[in-house]
Amino acid sequence: xxxxxxxxxxxxxxxxxxxxxxxxxxxxxxxxxxxxAGGKYNNGLSEAIWDFRFNDxxxxxxxxxxxxxxxxxxxxxxxxxxxxxxxxxxxxxxSRNNFFKIQKEIQGGKHSHYMYALTASNPVISRQLAFxxxxxxxxDEQRLEEAKEILGDNFNRVKxxxxxxxxxxxxxxxxxxxxxxxxxFNTIDTVAxxxxxxxxPDDEDKSIEHExxxxxxxxxxxxxxWNPNKIKMPTTNRESINDTSN
Length: 246
What we know:
Elements: H1 12-22, H2 26-37, H3 45-61, E1 67-73, E2 78-84, E3 89-95, H4 96-107, H5 114-117, H6 131-135, H7 138-151, E4 160-169, E5 172-181, E6 187-192, H8 201-225
Parallel strand pairs: 3-4
Antiparallel strand pairs: 1-2, 2-3, 4-5, 5-6
């Protein structure tokens, strides 16, 4: 039987940039956090570890021209997404357990989560509308308004939103997965994230330089090939942790 082709377009260069930050696990930061907290109680570690991941992620993507940080401020906590201007994909991040929790809540009618707003541009596979929804499109309007508020000028540039997850343990981050959901947050495709060879600092710099060079070459090609007369067309402790953040 012929294997079904994945809908998700895997961008290995992008994943090589972001996965080292996403694979930070609790054991790596416990000592630093314990020192900061000033004692043996580490109740805030499961929340703080996402700060470590996102701060590292923010630093990494700042070196790549086509990757833009999307701050997501939820008043009592902050998270982030990464928008890839080269292919129009918005990437969100959470633990695998938390993804399924969010999915269950959204499909149960709780639409206040930011991931619901930011997947409005995803494929529409099937939609069963309740009777009151046939007469009232307020929910869709609010969804788009929230997405516009978060994305700003990037709102019309987002073609698709992916959700990247890992299973997080005390001593490991494993089973990296890219999820694609439809507009009703049903999973329509998944892809396992490869285990990339850990780069040396030199390799990482070369990868970032390569990404930036691709963007510059694309810009140059557009300038060289531009035709001014052309008509424009319309356009261990293996217990899972860190499950509740973002």
